[in-house]
Every structure is written in structure tokens, then in C-alpha cells.
Design goal:
By secondary structure, the chain is mainly β. It is 9% helix and 52% strand.
Length: 358
């Protein structure tokens, strides 16, 4: 860990002193994010707890430092802390709060990106969900299945928040509306434990498993649609997914949007064989669309020879300033099917979230 911190510090020191004629703050852009959740299990075996995810780092632009064109380095570290609602309270496999992780401080992201006008290639420690299976319409939902489709997030330990892993991905853009993405990621990211406290035990190769993804996206000012395929080398499992969102109405004050997602595995032996997800959001309920938003959605994950688990989620968030918002969230979990589900046939989960992101 000390070696990683020293290397990162050296990189940032060079970045800040790269060119006296170019202000350092233009070449280096810091970034920080905090999710702080007061969480409650409200049915059956009731609990109250606290979860936290915090990351701190930044991106160094080689072109702004007058080094070379199109390059950028990113390094960040994260801390997670607090309760484990899905693991200890509810026993669901879709994860009611996507920041659940335990108490660790660790390497978050460490990657290099080379960009041109139509092409980006990124290599290193990264979050798969930053590039694949992403939708702005599902950003504020807390349940993990709205962030990363369960046929990926449940079947494999892929690089995704809160714990990332090694990968390489390529994006090729065709004009303003069409993008093709291809990626190769570690499909068995080592979980954080006493032997891997800092997320420094990385592997990338067929021996531990690789996940190959291919995704085509079409987007415009009204929404987007993604069609993706994936293949995992160890289990030899393949699957498809479709994700879309669409603006139904928009004015200076309000915006209404809908989203949907479908996923299916070709192998019926996979733990999670399929997923369906849909919902809608309204922006600008009591103020302008930038001020507040509410959403209602559901996600059903179908498990091989077990059952179907469904999460119904409602949220309402208020933005105080551009970088800070508060959010109230409530979920009803129908038939949680995890191994530790020994409390209720169904569960109710609520959370109050503070988010700072800049």
C-alpha cells in the first residue's frame, strides 16, 4: 500500500510541476465523492445502521501539461465503512445498497486512457459499470440491480463499485450518436478481507477468469439504447442484455423519463439466469428539474432452480447545490433468496442518503 501511495504521489508531483507556463490546476483535476447512508430494516428483524463510501483522487491530463496529446492518468483511493444490510439483515442477492462492503480503505481506480476524436482506450484498475450497462436514468437508485445488471453483478465478481479490478476497454464513436465498446475484465475480483485489505492483489488472465463484453449504443437528446453481449472464460457462460431510457416529456421546469432493462444467460446452469427491470422518474416536482426528482422502479432477478427475487424501489432526492444532494429511499424486497435469508419472506428497507460529488 505504501508503494502504491508513493507512486501516486510522485505522479501527481510531476503533474503539478510539469509546465510553469500552464497553471497546474488545469492539468490536474481533483475528484471526491461521498455516499453516507442511514439505513433501516423495517420489517420482521428490524435494524438501524450506517453505511459510507468515500473516494478521493484525481485525473492528470497530459495534453494540458504540454506532454502529449490525448493522454490522462487517474488515481483514487476509497474507504467503505458500516453495516451490511443485504448480508446480515435481509439476505437478498440484488443488494439493497450498492455501497455495502464492510470496513476497508483501499485502491479504488488506477488507470491510463488514450483518447482521440473518435476513440478512447482505457487500461488499468477500473469500474466496468462506468463504461458498460450504464444509464443516467438509474443513477439515483440505491439497489445494486439498477446500476449493474444482475446477470453480470450476481454471476461474477466483476470490477464494479465498491471494489474495482483490472480491465481494458475500447470505445469507438461513429458520429455523434453511435458508439461501439469492447472490453476485457477480470471476472473474479478478489474480495476485500484480512489477506487483501487494500485491493492490491490483482490478477488478469484466463486462469482466474476473464469477462469479455461487446456493446453497441445509440443515443440522442431524447435517450439511449444499448445492446450488449458477454462471455466468461472459466464458467464458459454467455449472455445478452438490452438497456434503454427515454425522455417522455421535457420543458424548462420538468422532465419525465422512463427506463427498462432485460438480461438473459444462454446457460441455464448460471446462478442468475435472467433479469427484467423498468421504471420512471419525474424531475422538477416542487421546483425546477435541477432541484428535485422522484423515481419508482422494479427489478426482478430469476435464479436457477431457486426462485425469483424482486426489488421495488422509490426515491426522492433534493439537490442543495450542484455537488450536494439529500435522498430518501424505500424498497420492498419480495422473496429475498440469499443464503442468509432467515428472517422474513419479504423485507422493507429504507435509507436516507447524503451525497457529495465534485
Amino acid at each position: 500500500m505504501n508503494k502504491l501511495i508513493a507512486a501516486t504521489t510522485t505522479m501527481l508531483t510531476f503533474a503539478l510541476s510539469a509546465n510553469a507556463s500552464e497553471p497546474a490546476e488545469k492539468a490536474f483535476e481533483p475528484h471526491a465523492r461521498l455516499y453516507a447512508d442511514l439505513a433501516m430494516s423495517l420489517r420482521g428483524n428490524t435494524h438501524v445502521g450506517y453505511l459510507q463510501y468515500a473516494s478521493l483522487g484525481g485525473t492528470f491530463d497530459t495534453e494540458k501539461a504540454n506532454w502529449w496529446r490525448g493522454g490522462s492518468f487517474h488515481a483514487s483511493f476509497a474507504n467503505t465503512f458500516g453495516s451490511k444490510p443485504s448480508e446480515d439483515w435481509i439476505g437478498d442477492w440484488q443488494y439493497v445498497d450498492f455501497i455495502e462492503n464492510g470496513n476497508f480503505t483501499f485502491a479504488d481506480q488506477l488507470w491510463y486512457r488514450q483518447s482521440s476524436e473518435q476513440t478512447d482506450i482505457t487500461v488499468g484498475l477500473q469500474d466496468l459499470n462506468d463504461y458498460f450497462n450504464w444509464s443516467d436514468a438509474t443513477y439515483y437508485y440505491i439497489n445494486g440491480s439498477f446500476q449493474l445488471i444482475p446477470t453480470l453483478g450476481i454471476n461474477y465478481n466483476v470490477p464494479s463499485l465498491p471494489v474495482n479490478g483490472l480491465g481494458v476497454n475500447l470505445e469507438q464513436r461513429f458520429g455523434d450518436h453511435v458508439a461501439l465498446r469492447a472490453g476485457l475484465f477480470d471476472s473474479d475480483v478478489r474480495p476485500l478481507d484480512d489477506d487483501n485489505k487494500y485491493n492490491l492483489q490483482w490478477h488478469f488472465g484466463t486462469r482466474n477468469g476473464l469477462l469479455a463484453l461487446l456493446e453497441m449504443q445509440y443515443s440522442n437528446d431524447k435517450g439511449m439504447i444499448q445492446l450488449g453481449a458477454h462471455y466468461e472464460t472459466i464458467e464458459e457462460e454467455a449472455g445478452l442484455y438490452l438497456k434503454a431510457d427515454r425522455t417522455l416529456f421535457e420543458s424548462d421546469r420538468r422532465k419525465v423519463e422512463a427506463f427498462g432493462q432485460l438480461g438473459a444467460m444462454a446457460n441455464r446452469s448460471a446462478l442468475c439466469t435472467a433479469n427484467i427491470c423498468a421504471g420512471a422518474n419525474v424531475h422538477g416536482i416542487f421546483g425546477k428539474k435541477e432541484f428535485d426528482a422522484a423515481g419508482l422502479g422494479f427489478s426482478s432477478a430469476f435464479f436457477n432452480d431457486i426462485s425469483t427475487e424482486t426489488a421495488i424501489e422509490f426515491f426522492y432526492k433534493i439537490s442543495v447545490v450542484d455537488i450536494l444532494y439529500f435522498q430518501a429511499d424505500c424498497q420492498y424486497i419480495i422473496n429475498p433468496v440469499g443464503e442468509k435469508n432467515c428472517y422474513n419472506p419479504n423485507a422493507v428497507f429504507a435509507a436516507l442518503r447524503l451525497c457529495i460529488d465534485f
